[in-house]
Amino acid sequence: MSSQENLPEKVATNNSIEKSDLVQREYVTEKNNSQKAQDQSSIQKSMQDLDQDQHVETNPSQFNFQNVQLTLDNDMSKFAGKITGVVYSKNNREIIPNAIILLYFGSYDDSRSYAVCQTKSDDNGNFVLDGLPPGYYTLYAYLGRYLREKIHNIKMLPGQNHHQSILLKKVEDNFH
């Protein structure tokens, strides 16, 4: 008779639990050893990769072709703007010939501004100011001492033709 057979049933059951527990432990140990072996193998492969010479191309032979056409045109008439218009009297809407038209770049100040362009209205009250670069302008028109008008913030874009009618109004004489 074996010693286990003489033991009570409770102890024999415990022993069988221990045996299955032992088998499980051996399986887990084998699994852990296998995992460790894989990790070690992976580390070794990584180390081998680091030891190898790496060749990096510093002058890649990639070509990128783009078709770009650039045309330079010095013909300023294509970019210069023009202001045309007619001069009228504000009171009776009659055409005013021979009115003086002055053009100022930016805003107009009587004491500090210089006209960049000047013209006169013809017999039909028409006028033309051409060859103007893009920008903001102020138009000042007068006839004698009593008829005057200012038109501010005329915006000229490249190559733009702008039509501006001018209504001259009577100005009181301040010299009395």
Outline the structure in words.
By secondary structure, the protein is of the alpha+beta class. The chain has a domain at 80-170: Carboxypeptidase-like, regulatory domain (Immunoglobulin-like, Sandwich), CATH 2.60.40.1120. The protein is 27% helix and 30% strand. The chain is built from 2 helices and 8 strands; from the N terminus they run ααββββββββ. The chain has helices spanning 3-6, 9-51, and strands at 81-89, 100-105, 117-120, 126-132, 135-143, 147-156, 161-163, 166-170. Strands 1, 2, 3, 4, 5, 6, 7 and 8 form an 8-stranded mixed sheet that branches. A hairpin with a 3-residue loop joins strand 5 and strand 6 (147-156). It is elongated, with a radius of gyration of 49 Å. 10% of the residues are buried. Residues 1-16 have low confidence and may be disordered.
Properties at a glance:
disordered N terminus, about 25% helix, 8-stranded mixed sheet, 2 helices, Immunoglobulin-like, about 180 residues, elongated, alpha+beta, single chain
